[in-house]
Amino acid sequence: MSLQPSTTTSWQEQVADKRKRLQTLIPPEWTIAPVPDEQVNVLDVPQTCGLLTDRELEITDTPDVTVLLQKLAKAEWSAVEVTTAFSKRAIIAHQVVNCLTEIFIDRALQRAAELDAYLKEHGTVMGPLHGLPVSLKDQFPIKGLETTMGYAAWIGKVAEDDAVLVQLLLRAGAVLFVRTNVPQTLMWGETYNNVFGRTLNPYNRTLTPGGSSGGESALISMHGSPLGVGSDIGGSIRVPSHFCGLYGFKPSSHRMPSYGIVNSLDGQDSIPTAIGPLTVSLSGVIAFVRGILNLEPWRYCPATIPKPWSQDDYSLRNRNGGKNLCFGIMWDEGSVKPHPPILRALTETKNALEAAGHKVIEWKSLRHSEYIAVARSIWLSDGSEDYNSCLTTGEPLINSMVPDADPNDIPAFRIPRQPLTAYQLWQLNKEKKALRKAHLDRWEATAAETGTGRPIDALICPVAPYAAVPHGQTRSSIYTVIWNTLDCPGLVVPVTKVDPAVDTKPVREVFWSEEDRVVYDMYDPEIYKGVPVGVQIVGPTLQEEVVLGVGEVVDAALRSA
Amino acid sequence: MSLQPSTTTSWQEQVADKRKRLQTLIPPEWTIAPVPDEQVNVLDVPQTCGLLTDRELEITDTPDVTVLLQKLAKAEWSAVEVTTAFSKRAIIAHQVVNCLTEIFIDRALQRAAELDAYLKEHGTVMGPLHGLPVSLKDQFPIKGLETTMGYAAWIGKVAEDDAVLVQLLLRAGAVLFVRTNVPQTLMWGETYNNVFGRTLNPYNRTLTPGGSSGGESALISMHGSPLGVGSDIGGSIRVPSHFCGLYGFKPSSHRMPSYGIVNSLDGQDSIPTAIGPLTVSLSGVIAFVRGILNLEPWRYCPATIPKPWSQDDYSLRNRNGGKNLCFGIMWDEGSVKPHPPILRALTETKNALEAAGHKVIEWKSLRHSEYIAVARSIWLSDGSEDYNSCLTTGEPLINSMVPDADPNDIPAFRIPRQPLTAYQLWQLNKEKKALRKAHLDRWEATAAETGTGRPIDALICPVAPYAAVPHGQTRSSIYTVIWNTLDCPGLVVPVTKVDPAVDTKPVREVFWSEEDRVVYDMYDPEIYKGVPVGVQIVGPTLQEEVVLGVGEVVDAALRSA
């Protein structure tokens, strides 16, 4: 990256300039009439604003990424018209939920035209994602464009190279067109920073779309993009997918190519970031993972494990072809009881699986709190030196996601710690290793209960103890962090929506912890009315194909229930 | 581990007691007549001492592990007689080169008898290593036995569990019978500690067998074990294999199961230890790696990548079946020129490969010194806190491997450093990542020169700039550390022996570095006369099967040259 220094201007001036430049990238003819603040649900704005043609609505409302890819491959829809449709819808979404950080539709349309010409000339697609518009979280540098990642100090940082994933997406035939908002430091389950401000949940703008890939989840749930790429160190793909009714997948940390991304806590390799998709359909998750693996990312990213896509694993060949599987179910992690709609989503999933001939057994909570504690100790081991190194402009560190928060009011899980030594970090790595062994042994031991001769084929659990919460109300992402500590792949599948008529608030007087009480007090069915609820499907480390294959089994069971 | 405290006795007394207990495990009837110190080459002692029967000599002299396994599987040789033969020969070796730390032949013979009974009853072997005696570096705990790893403070530490690799070796049918010596701290290319003293090179006892798996290399080169398991963080399998004329293999760091081992710098995961075999034949390397992978070690060790053995990769299916390959050759790493016999071994390998129809192109040195620098900074980042935590008895830290060294005379690469913070360690991880990317791009770029349409199939390079050196003379293991920093698998294949008639000392007046001059000055053909010389075959990260398949091509070319 080369820094084009902004020298003497204040960070506020730099931010104002950046916002202005972003604004100028919105074609004036794509500006919509203002939507009043009182309209909290903005999902129908693309239909009602009058900007999209019927055909553009048909394209962008296509619920299955595979169908999009097929129509593109057959030239039923050209890449230019698909790119135009999603670009317009992305711009519409941005005007109501503030989800974009970089807009480069001109490049995208030029690229789409090249793809159309390629298809016409060769009679075949350029790659498995030919013509598919793909949005990117603001961590994936593209040559010639800025990547600010929500830091004022990074305004003007123009990338000299594409991130490896960007190179591979282009080789796969994707059309990149926008990048999306993140929280400052990335280490939050919401999306707010001093440069671009706050991203809102299209289901209810008083709620957060989650984070840190919250620009993506807001955008995709409005069908402003069919598929986006996020990153997840503690839930940053899965929480926003759950909050916005999407499919989201966090692979194991070294399966997808990370080289060349910008990141928080860069060089922290103990519990690292994983890259994965958020999208409108499970077919999109599979197209992305298979498409990238088939391009042999380990030849370009030194941190990617050379493990080719396994069609056998994906088709559950050694798991009875996906018939009569056995699932574990974890209703809670033992310290914070999920809200009623979360438990209902688990129950519906369990019932659907049993109705489809599968077995579901209880997963007993064991050492989950230790998984959280070790992750937090590792991530905070630099004593915030990484964050501070990005705040050189005088821009303040954001301590709370509450709108107009008292800057000194810091949630417990964000309180800075004293820096550790390298030796102390090594001791944490040893703890992590012992915890991973305990989990692995526990998983293998389920073979005695499954009746299949195998351990459980996957574990079903909450993504969070709540659905999308009001801005500033997210807590530590315990249900997702567990699987980062253990480096297990986790897939989010949407199940239902909060229904105040059935998801009534139970009376509880005994609590498992202070956190349990706080989370209980947050629940009011009217606040969460109508927002989506997903479940998380977890598998063994680096068995991405198994999780996706099992995910299709779960999804099919839910859709036919 | 439970510590059986030795309370008030001094460390010297504890060491004396440990040595005495070790001595009592040698059956008196297996004691041989003393070999005079003047006899520096002791390779023929097993033949001349009169202790082994002709059949025991035939068994232990078997040059190919596959042949041993076949004869065991057919019950031509019983597990008990094979175990007896290698046990006797190990005890003989120990008496002349001091290679053992734990002796448990009673257990081994009982186990061998069980294996014989199993084969008789079932008509089939228990596993792929049925009846094979396997020795272990003193890092692999076995339930009920001590593991001291050369630290006085660890005397009396009795393991409560088998390391995962021990469990899998037993499941594979192996017979474990001895553990072998290491240097204090493990971070040396020689083998000497305060508990067990110094291990000697059977080719010439005035020379080191290398380290840190030097007990293994000394033992196996005397055929006191057909196959042993070592570990390698900077050359600790490859240097001793090279110094003792063995095949030795360092896989990538997360391919073989490490859970449950004891280690130096435990929790240091930036450039971690890799586990692998040292053995008398390439077939032994392959039997070990394939045998362990086929037992799915990732189900028991959370640090092991679930990547099954690939027969396609091993058979070089996508590499023209092993015909007309293209190799890179690295004559030196740019700062230290190897001694004449090392360069001759490379030349002979190149000639043999070309004679067999392969192409060999030059690998240009680029950033090798940086690979070494970052590794050293990472390993020393704890400011020696890990070492010091093991020296609680008052036992001194060994600063030099020179016999009767001045304890204050510390080689440059061992000088302790100030401890780093976790944040500083993260910065080193970033450096490492950038270096791995530079290497990967360099490797891929060779595709333009190979003529095969692929990058080079493997790289041939020195294992060290010298053959086995006099005790105390090893330097930093630059030629091996490179591949630990890059996490590339490296296979050592023996090529030749030092011949003073051809390996004459060249005149050099210009040196690449001070280290280059020091290493040049070390060379005197008479010192190294007759000791073995190997080469190193390096491949891409986690492509162990490719390196082994290519290794067979190289080995066959050398044997038929």
TrEMBL record, chains A, B:
Query: Which SUPFAM superfamilies did the record assign?
Result: Amidase signature (AS) enzymes
Q: Name one Pfam family in it.
A: Amidase
- Protein name listed in UniProt: amidase
Under Gene Ontology molecular function, one entry of this record is: amidase activity
Q: Which family does it belong to?
A: Belongs to the amidase family.
Q: Pinpoint the Amidase domain residues.
A: 81-548
Record: active site = 137, 212, 236
Task: Detail which positions bind substrate.
Answer: 186, 212, 233-236
- What superkingdom heads the lineage? Eukaryota
Q: Which UniProt keywords apply?
A: Hydrolase
Organism, as annotated: Trametes cubensis
Please give the InterPro entries that the UniProt record associates with this protein: Amidase_CS, Amidase_dom, AS_sf
Q: Which reaction does it catalyse?
A: a monocarboxylic acid amide + H2O = a monocarboxylate + NH4(+)
EC no. given is: 3.5.1.4
